[in-house]
Write a structure and sequence with these properties.
By secondary structure, the chain is of the alpha/beta class. It folds into two domains: 141 residues, Glycogen Phosphorylase B (Rossmann fold); 229 residues, Glycogen Phosphorylase B (Rossmann fold, 3-Layer(aba) Sandwich), CATH 3.40.50. Helices cover 35% and strands 17% of the residues. The strands form three sheets. An eight-stranded mixed sheet has the order 10-9-7-11-12-13-16-17, sandwiched between helices. The protein has a six-stranded parallel sheet with strand order 3-2-1-4-5-6. The radius of gyration is 22 Å and the shape is globular. The C terminus is likely disordered.
Length: 431
Amino acid sequence: MNYWDDVPFQLPPLPFKGRVRRAVTQLICLAGMTVAKTARALRADRKANVPAKVFVIRRGGLGDVLMATPLLRGLREHFQSARIYVLTSKQAVAGLLGSPWVDEILEVPNSKKDWLRLLQKLRKERIDAAFILHRFFAPSLLPLLAGIPQRLGFDWKNHGFALTGSVPFSPARSQTLQIAQLLTLLGKPAAGCEMEFTVSEDASRSARELLRGWGYDPTKSLVGIHPGGGETAGSSEPAKRWLPERFGQLADLLEQRGIQVVMLQGPGDEPFMEGVLKNRKERVLGIAAGLPLAAFAALMKECDLVVANDTGPMHLAAAQEVPVVAILGPTHPAYAPPRGKMHKVIWAGVPCSPCYNPEEYVFGTRRNGKKVFECWRGTHECMTAITAEEVYEVVAKQILALTNKPHLGEQAAERGGIKFVTMFDGKSQTE
């Protein structure tokens, strides 16, 4: 059990429309669960069959689909001849390209007509089992309507009424670990939690050539900084981003002490990168922008460490087995970050956090069709409480512990302590 498991949420107030949506949803789920319990009582328990075809639903962004890769790997290992389909969002498709665990990638439809086509395809395929990696009830209706006999997912409130099997879910525990537990519903051991993303040799070669062009010195440490994220086609989450100017200050501190810095810029990150580079004192090694996802991941793999917000690139770096320093504010410190001793989480633990609960967020503020998550108090103090100097301390000590490049050791040891750091090894660590 993780030290931060079950830290209580400090939920922001829902707008009136959100409260209405939640009340209507609760009524739908209560009615659905009542019908489901009655139906289950009238028929004999079904035993899980060995699936020849498996359907996995994982909507969301890049990080969401990467957290599903342990389950996909486990399915392939235990059901080698099974055909595995994955339904995911357009922006997350690239996270599965080249994966040896997936046979067919399906995109989330944009129109009712496309949804009907997808439903017809699924019925025609005669799929044996579906894994729904969401707690909200709506995604589980698709495999129900498609006639998939085994529908496996999470037991959360009454949202699992369309499921035939489930495991308990908590928004205050590791999401990756809980997804891996779903494999037990088919009588197999829980999957390992290591995320994966395939990087080709061509992509690795491109990354190395890019670094050489920037003048990279392999005898010195290299830190990747990703200051953006939190923007997708369906959601905007500015509250989950650390301040751009703090990322800039961190880059200065690292460069001043002989650590090379590469800035990692994904699609839509341009405004945040401008804020990072404004008033900078030192020159970063380079800015990685406009790269294909595989080359972006390959560049991360060349880094000794990556600093990121709670975003897809945080998980992408972990999938390349690169140490991550994750800066969290409203997110629950046990829920999203990658697991393992090589990773560090910086979380201020201010009284109003964690306030980002994905299960309540679905009922929150919407603008122009997007779900929007902002600091409901308007202070952003869970992020402003974290200074660049404190993050530098964590980064420097991790580099000392994990690499053979000790040129910054004495400088790091001379500086002050850290107010709040936790490692995912079962205990909190305050240095």
